[in-house]
Protein 1
Amino acid sequence: MSAAAWWRDGVIYQVYPRSFQDSNGDGIGDLPGVIRRLDYFQWLGVDAVWLSPITVSPDADFGYDVADYCNVQPAFGTLADIDRLVREADQRGIKVVLDIVPNHTSDRHPWFIEARSGRAARHRDWYVWADPKADGGYPNNWLSPFGGPTWTLDERSGQYYLHNFLPQQPDLNWWNPEVKDAFDAIYRFWFDRGIAGFRIDVAHGIVKDLHLRDNPVATDEDPPHVRAHGQRNIYNMERPEVHDVLRHWRTLADGYDPRRILLGETYVLDVRTMGRFYGAGDELHLAFNFTYVHAPFKASVLAEVVAESELVIPDVGWPVWTVSNHDVSRVMSRWCQGDERKLRTALLSLLALRGTPVLYYGDEIGMPDNLVRQEDLQDPLGKRHWPAPRGRDPERTPMQWRNVNGGGFTNAGLKPWLPIGDTARNVEDQQADPGSTLNFVRDLIALRRASPDLQSSQYRQLKSPPNAWAWQRGAATVAAVNLSGRRLRIPEVAGRILISTTRSRAGERLADGLTLGAWEGAICFSASTSAPVR
Ligand code: NOJ
């Protein structure tokens, strides 16, 4: 693998630090805990670890409300710990990617505290302020994806401030060049410490309409998620000027070396819009594809999303795929209803598509969403919307390392910050079981690493019966999944099975096409396939 291409050829693993490994017995995961698990990443075969925010935060939104961008949250450790993590990860050939939150700060960030001290404050214009309407009402009709208006009245100055998310997360004003300079310094601070790149929070939304115009109200013509929200977010997010900022950051990252990457949280649910965040190869290196994450688990739909993505991502760009993260229900529950067979088809697809796979911690052992009782809720959305199932705690519960009290995450007898799920499903037992999902994922990653076809070659969808999805990668590799409860045959596939979700079929020669049992998938060595459908 050439050094410049690690992020194209490799696998990225997302760690939610609060829930990964507690090392000091306070029930909260931390950086020394992540360091302790470096051997695990190496054993699994991942190339990089992306840590959800580790910077100082009052935790109104668990790290996504930053009070100091250049320091480590005390519960997670110190700058010395992050330096050690980078160093020890590097010794194992693993990169460290951090999360950066440029859309908003915490309301306890010194910039905002100063900004709200008065209209003439030095940092006033670093945030977005607006006068009330004549009747005292909100400056415009913008609604937060977290619920309610995006404006909170600052009693002292009589103006509203903007927050696309919680009131404790005031939005920065990206029209102000000083904000840009401040973030340049933050990027440099971390790049200088050897960080390989950033996952950029709300990468599509940081610039707001200069005139703060009302969003258009949703109509029957709009897709369901827009109708549910009630309006089209075209003025509070997705402004064209965001591309200037992304280009600027790309220049900054490239100024270091081509191995530093920008991975954007481009939450746009429209593949064509997502494709634009690659620019002409001069914006994001990778733009998350949420249309795929939120698609139903149906062969025809997933194939369509991938086909469209393949069309819109420019040649200079590179896709990135994920099936879970800290904001959406886990794949084991969302797509698979707890069915291990389904999970393996989902993971096989993730690792066999053209593009960088991002694996969410715990998905490799099939952790499901863990239901959290009202008294245990932590996520502000979960609290706000209870009993509606909108909270994000279920996908954020501690990693299940061992079948012991505390799950190997924290000391036995101690109450972790979120309750641990059923530890009968755990890393230790699955490592010891060659037939486990964990070993399946590890073998898939190893196969991918050994296969230039899977790592970097073209994607071509193959003709297949309803409920099957088959695609060729490069000259000689085919992946196929049967997303139905009925056996089916894909006549076009010839050759030999390299790995199957059932683990029993490796080496099998295909004399008469590929027959897949219910919810079965396979990757085959297949030099002679017929014409693609696209
Ligand atoms: C996206 C993050 O992934 C999510 O966890 C957070 O609540 C919002 N952005 C606001 O920062």
Protein 2
Amino acid sequence: MDGFLPYGGAVYADGRMLAASEGAVGLIRINQPEKHNAMSVAMWQGLAEILDAFEQDPAIRAVLLAGAGGRAFCSGADISQFDAERSDANAQQDYERRTRAGRLRLGGFTKPVIAAISGYCLGGGLALAMHTDLRLADATATFGIPAARLGIAYAFPLVQKLIGLVGPGQARRLLYGGERIDAAEALRIGLVEQVVADGALDATARDLARRIAGNAPLSVRAAKLAVDAAEQDAARRDEAAVERAIAACFDSEDYREGRAAFAAKRLPRFAGR
Ligand code: COA
């Protein structure tokens, strides 16, 4: 994500989180490279603020999340804050509450988010990646959950998310052993959707984001709602909301535009309504 701030960027969490937009694509960069982009409490809060801004901006139709510095996507929670912020179970509850905002915003975000993963993607960094819609990695990417090596534990919703992606067996392997796996292995077990050649990650991720952003926003939204709902417990999912989102597509101006563009053999121009 070179040339980031020239695209009208904004700075959050004292510059540790950066946001910008490029056409219909919102760009987020985790920017603490001297700590391999470890996430502090303020950075989780910054992420929530950026997502709020992108959610409210109708011009943004897809979001790309990456780490700065080229050596890490994110090395997890900022361990230097653990003594002050996470010293026991009580403190952990408060820490969880303050950092949850970012994860919840990502979970409830209505536009697709793509993670472009280069280098370390560990612990809370992997949790962050797991909460995006699509994970692209290059061959330098390394994945792992070091919680058991630190004497802490992954939160239950994160374990559920992990099992949803890789199944209980591979989840146990990652959680119990704390081993790190490479991009090819991450692809094999379903932790990432695509691995691209070194040097091609940024362009491939941007192309994908642009392609999604060029499609009918209501169709993409309905697809996202449907997949997210299918991932949830049947008792908790809002199937009616999925049905409404699907129906909205068939009543939309964009559906008319899609048909007209097909008939005229031209590219559609979707308005998101
Ligand atoms: N939180 C805070 N600081 C971190 C960090 C984290 N999650 N990950 C790395 N850093 C810091 C290191 O302490 C080091 O700081 P220093 O230069 O002041 O000593 C700096 O980033 C560079 O890390 P270093 O360990 O020297 O780099 P490396 O290439 O040898 O190893 C990692 C990189 C990511 C494998 C290693 O730093 C690591 O294991 N980090 C912790 C990962 C983790 O446990 N995450 C889960 C947290 S819940």
